Amino acid sequence: MPIVTIILPSLNVADYIERCVNSVRDQTLHDIEIICVDAGSVDGTYELLKEFAEKDSRIKIVQSDVKSYGAQVNLGIRMATGKYIGIVETDDYILPKMYQILVEASERYDCDFVKGEYQSFYKDSNGKEVIQNHKVFSEESDYNRIIKPVEVIESAVGDWRIWSGIYKKSFLLENNIILSETKGAAYQDIGFIGKTAIFANKACFCAEPFYRYCLDREDSSSNSGRGLSFSYYEFKELIHFLKTNKKWTIETRMYVYAKMAKSFVLCYGDFSDDSDSPWPIEAGLKYYDWFRTELCTAIENGELNEKTVPEYLWRKLNLYLSSSDEYLQTRDVKDKKLRSFIGDPEGVKIIIFGCGNWGITAYYRLLELGYEIYAFIDNNKDLWLKEIEGVRILSPDELPLDNNRILIANEEHCFDIYDQLIKIGIDKTDIFFFR
After folding, report:
1. Which of 232, 244, 315, 423 is deepest in the core (most CB within 10 A)?
2. Residues 9, 131 within the same domain
3. Contact indicator for 193, 160 with CB cutoff of 8 Å
4. How many domains does the chain have?
5. For residue 144, what is the DSSP state?
6. Rounded CA gap, 435 and 432, in Å?
7. Contact 205, 143 (CB under 8 A)
8. Are the beta carbons of 225 and 187 closer than 8 angstroms?
9. 3-state DSSP call for residue 177?
10. Radius of gyration for the chain, computed over Cα atoms and rounded to the nearest angstrom
11. Are the C-beta atoms of 1 and 83 separated by less than 8 Å?
């Protein structure tokens, strides 16, 4: 029996599949089973998988009749013969020691699941791979130890990855934990992550990043613009599952609402006012109103407060929960506010404070609006003197004080950055919170 069964769900990923499969085949842990579940690819993905299977007896290929990420993973779980289950999305890739180290940790602590950290990546216009680090916990002491995830609220806010770990197959089967089988790739991992965290008695997070998550594919669910609707269906199903299994306790409600708050804030801007978008802002109101009702009730009942989520998230949550009218207004005037803030760009230095995902998003949005970016600023000294898309990254000490328009593009530390800018002499009218 293999130690780990690794499930690779695929649909039209011919440009990525070889890199992904090779990274799984090249694991230092050789005793693995690789189940490739294809959902009817028409771009040559399936043919490539057959070639790989001919070269490696550990690879099994199965076709899914349903184009659903959840259905594909569930089929793989049913077929799996390994003690542990792992999942790798087929536009991503993993580092060689991932499963060896995760299995060693799980065997050491007898965990229901173990997860490592991950790094996201994209290629800039020069074809260079740009890597960004992500962490569940702010304190290193929370890593490499046994925890009960539902009791560690920070994991509710920080853990959004199904694919960075391994799960005991027996744990999943005993608790009937599977993914939703909604169509396509529709955030089905939200419910799975919530269920595994709430039902697990012992889990462990390793600090090392083993997984590389691709940000380049425009048709991925994270780039679909439908996050609020996907999250709505996932949280409704999760709550129903917990109630049915008599797990809807104070403890689990606090965990779920903390995770829901983060999801709501992240997805708040998904419904665009772009006339070319098939998902206009009015389409999001049904989902916005549901989230608002659930979260406001949780706040009233003391199940969600400033102690259960980080300060930055609490502030944004209260802003976004104001009303559905405010929701519509905010989405409708977003670009107008940005243009008004910058004004006449002639002679103005447009600067983005933050080099993470939000900074990159701000950069491309500004380019789409026709602006030229003067520089990035970041507090991470390891980034100083480097470049993003040919735009240099400066230290805060190098920030020019005149003719600036500074966009704060950082989710977690935005208010700290604002205070930092005020202290060094930047006028508050020259600062813009990019959301």
Report:
1. 232
2. yes
3. yes
4. 3
5. S
6. 9
7. yes
8. no
9. coil
10. 22
11. yes
The torsion angles phi and psi of 92, rounded to 5 degrees, stand at: -105, 180
Q: 186 and 278: one domain?
A: no
Q: Give the pLDDT means over successive 10-residue stretches in the chain (435 positions).
A: 97 96 98 97 96 97 93 97 98 98 97 96 77 88 95 92 97 96 79 97 97 76 64 95 97 97 81 43 77 96 94 84 63 70 83 87 80 90 85 90 86 87 88 85
Q: Hunting for tokens 């502030």 — which residue is that? A: 315
Please name the residue that has the structure tokens 């009015």: 282
Same domain as 112, residue 25: yes
- The two tokens of residue 157 are 């806010």
Structure tokens belonging to residue 40: 């009817």
| Containing structural domain, residue 369 | 343-433
Q: Is 257 exposed, middle or buried (0-12, 13-18, 19+ CB in 10 A)?
A: buried
Name the 3-class secondary structure at 182: coil
* Dmax (CA) of the chain: 67
- CB 31 within 8 Å of CB 57: no
Tally the residues of the chain: 435
User: Residue 63 contacts by C-beta under 8 Å, 6 or more apart in sequence?
Assistant: 37, 38, 39, 40, 46
Q: Report yes or no: 248 and 135 within 8 Å, Cβ to Cβ.
A: no
Place of tokens 């009791």: 151
CATH code: domain of residue 80: 3.90.550.10
Question: Residue 182 corresponds to which tokens in the numbers above?
Answer: 């909604």
What are the residues facing 94 on neighbouring strands?
211
Residue 177 lies in a domain: yes
Report whether 329 contacts 354 (CB < 8 A).
no
User: Does residue 294 lie within any of the structural domains?
Assistant: yes
354: which 2 tokens?
């933050």
Tokens of 100: 């060896």
